[in-house]
Amino acid sequence: MFKWLEENTPKLVLAPSFIAVMVFVYGFIAWTAWVSLTRSRLLPKYEIDGFIQYDRLFASPRWDTAFGNLFIFGILFIVIAMILGLLLAILLDQNIRTEGALRTIYLYPMALSMIVTGTAWKWILNPGLGLEATVRGWGFENFTFDWLVNPDMAIYTIVIAAIWQSSGFVMALFLAGLRSVDGEIIKAAQVDGIPTWRVYTAIIIPSMAPIFLSAFIVLSHLAIKSFDLVIALTGGGPGYATDLPATYMYAMAFSRGDIGQAASSAMIMMMVVFTIVVPYLYSELRSKDG
Amino acid sequence: MADYSMHTVRNNNPIGKIALRWGLYVMLGIFAVFYLMPFFVMLTTSLKSLDEIRTGDLISLPREVTLDAWRTAWSGACTGIQCEGMRPYFWNSMLIAIPGVAISTLLGALNGYVVSQWKFRGANIIFSLMLFGCFIPFQVVLLPMARVLGMMGIAGTIPGLIFVHVIYGLGFTTLFFRNYYVSIPSELTKAAKVDGAGFFRIFWSIFLPLSIPIIVVTVIWQFTQIWNDFLFGVSFSQAGTQPVTVALNNIVNSTTGVKEYNVDMAAAIIAALPTLLVYVVAGKYFVRGLTAGSVKG
Predict the structure, then answer these.
(1) Residues B151 and B279 grouped into a single domain
(2) Between these two residues, A265 and B48, which has the higher pLDDT value?
(3) C-beta atoms of A105 and B268 within 8 A
(4) Could you tell me the pLDDT band of residue A190, with boundaries at 50, 70 and 90?
(5) What is the mean pLDDT of chain A?
(6) Between residues A84 and A195, which one has the greater pLDDT?
(7) Across the interface, do B35 and A178 touch by the CB < 8 Å criterion?
(8) Which end of chain B is more exposed for a tag (fewer CB within 10 A), N or C?
(9) How far apart, in whole angstroms, are the C-alpha atoms of residue B224 and residue B218?
(10) Interchain proximity B294–A27, CB inside 8 Å
(11) What span, in angstroms and rounded, lies between the C-alpha atoms of A8 and A102?
């Protein structure tokens, strides 16, 4: 008995976590997938009834907006945050004396809750007393910046706030990448008289492909999960102009009492995440074992 | 992040070189202003009176510094019907975060120790399954979790929130420790076994003393995650057990009475203070956690 216990200690230690993950991750995903195929409303029902919830989802104009916003927001956020992060990293890599302080400044928003970020930007962008009023006060009477309350533009305020929060993190990733490029190659290129910008475009940036990939994965993951920021900044409004799948799911689950819609929208979110993350994780884990 | 070799700009024209340096610093300065501006605006707004906010502009310094908004935000602002300020919710978040961090870090250390040093058949698969758990959008577990918490009798309670944070933090904490312990040669464990040391003794006397840096990284990561969480907080709490992020959102979006922007900003800074403090004190470890969480090593 004692010997058995001793031999199996590692398994016994891992077992609770393993069981927890199997139940609370995979079991729960299965539950949500099942319920998304039923006619559940306020209470879950368990009789499978085909893809009715998905039909309802794709027929819903609100979901249409939310899903479309995910792509507008996701693409702009990822592309701009990557460009800005790379630019900051390259600028900081030029033997800057105050680099440490600047890095701290660029990265601190990452330590904040998205609710805090949303609250701050909501105040800055409100047309009545914020940026618009301030610039008008300087004498530019016709200056208008009402994106926060303009249904066509409100989604871009979320992009701005999200970039403010996360671009410093992309910078940190790229800076680490720049510093791991072989210095000898760069020196050799400089001795040959190749201009600095060519050294970056031809040698350094192409060698950072894996970092582009990691940054892309993290940012897209952040984009899909974005929920707090929308809630704090626009509350999904005006109307539902800035809804994202995450806020749609939450509204269905907790205020509309429509469990079937909540489950099916959550499943779509998971599929989007998995099409991005699964190939990445698979290749990472494979390269580990091999 | 290790190698900080510099790539210097080569330029033989001294005037052009100086202009280029100046341009560089100006650009870096503009970006610094962009990142600092929102915090600056939050801070100055929180120190102004409402009258001054209505008449003044966003980026002017307060003419008269007042701490009234801070006092209200801490102990008087209304989150819906209750008007107790951020204080009770700040302590709720502490009560959630401290045990949540401690338990998930300890379990992560033990799990990481098993999957890196005591590999058995299937250990890698278990680790991969746990890792995938880090990437799910949590929306997919919200509904069943709400029901299970109810069945366990901890719905809407602080222990319930601790439980949720531990479960969904496990993937990352295990990953951190596993990646750290993988680089410790397995000969060490083997030699200790030959000397008669058991599983826990090796963990306690050899691995834990080596783990200080990764414990710091994990604790900071988990603390930031749990403190800043909103989704679980808003889904699984009720009046009285809400964490600080939910309270902040309620204060800012409460529709009753006059909109007190200065109180909103003071409340936002209060909610941000603990994680900002951690960042300022231990920024190096914070960054390491971020990059370790993304660059799977």
Answers:
(1) yes
(2) A265
(3) no
(4) confident
(5) 88
(6) A84
(7) no
(8) C
(9) 10
(10) no
(11) 51
Kindly report the nearest CA distance between residue B285 and chain A, in angstroms.
Answer: 12
Residue B43: give the domain boundaries.
14-66
Q: What is the DSSP track for A49-63?
A: -TTHHHHHHHH-HHH
Assigned domain for B262 exists: yes
* CB spacing of B137 vs A270 below 8 angstroms: yes
> CB contact, 8 Å: A246 with chain B?
yes
Contact B5 A9 (CB under 8 A): no
B252 and B181 Cβ atoms separated by less than 8 Å: no
Q: How many secondary structure helices (H) and strands (E) does chain B include?
A: 14, 0
Q: Which residues make beta-bridge pairs with B156?
A: B237
B92 touches chain A (CB under 8 A): no
Is the CB of B51 inside 8 Å of chain A's CB atoms?
no
Instruction: Supply A53's token pair.
Output: 């919830």
Contact between residue A181 and residue A207 where contact means Cβ atoms under 8 Å apart: yes
Q: What is the pTM of this model?
A: 0.90
Residues B59 and B98 in one domain: no
Q: Do B29 and B143 lie in a common domain? A: no
Structural domain contains residue B27: yes
Residues of chain A with C-beta less than 8 angstroms from the C-beta of B25:
96
Question: Is residue B97, in this structure, part of any structural domain at all?
Answer: yes
Note the pLDDT of residue B8.
Answer: 47
What residues in chain B have per-residue pLDDT under 50? 1-11, 295-297
Residue B12 touches partner A, C-beta closer than 8 Å = no
CA dist., res. B234 & res. B246, Å (int): 6
- Which B residues 230-259 touch A at CB under 8 Å? 230-231, 234-235, 245, 248-249, 252-253
Distance (Å) from the C-alpha of residue A218 to the closest C-alpha of chain B?
6
- Give the per-residue pLDDT at B294: 58
